[in-house]
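We modelled the chain as a single entity of 243 amino acids. Its sequence is:
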Amino acid sequence: RRKKMGWEFRIFFRSERSTPRVLNLSGKAGERTDVYYVHSPTVGVKKRGGGGLEVKLMKDKDADGFEKWEKLKTSEDELENLLSESNYKPMPVDAPPITLIKRRVQTNFGFKILEETDLILCFSDIKTGPVQEYWRTICIEGKRKSCLPQQQQLYSQVKELVPDSEIIVCGYPYFIAHSIGRLWNDPSAPKFLKNSSYPPPPSKPPPIGGAEESMMGCGFDVLLGTPMCKPATPTKNDETPNC
């Protein structure tokens, strides 16, 4: 099942619990834990909220940082076939998964969707040991013509809010690839995911699930103590666009 998405402009930045909101969005926060399996900056593979596999394929990108994606539902058995049919390389071998615990507020404004999401990045492997980082992402999605006036404004707001923070303009697939490379102390990330020296692909996709999903039941309240805002049961609105 394929789902075409609107143009998306997304920013990630390192944050703290005390960092003020960038967007004053109304509505309740929805919380979800997703497990990401790194492929490349143009292909996203994740297990969404403890459910099935979801794949995102980049279809276009412009000079202003807007990206257009296509979203597909699949299974572990069909993942490699889907990538092959879409002319993408197989899943890498060695890259471990990254768990993102999300608390998101999202609001529709006509032809635009604005989103601000707190992220806890959880990662662990033999090279790094356990890692837990606090990030935030903001996003505007819709038709580029209606989104462009706010694009630079959003970036300027983030730069002013966290002038010393690492700020990345990209979608989730690039952010995951970049994070793996950074945590492995690979200065070429995410380029290392695409070069010919990367280990050969396995005969089957890497196993989906396992120890990395031990974080699935841990939310913001567990990891950070007092919540930043009152969580809500995810709704259909929370299931729609991009994360």
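As a brief sanity check on the tokenised model: The CA atoms of residues 130 and 174 lie 21 Å apart. Confidence is low (pLDDT under 50) at residues 188-217, 222-243.
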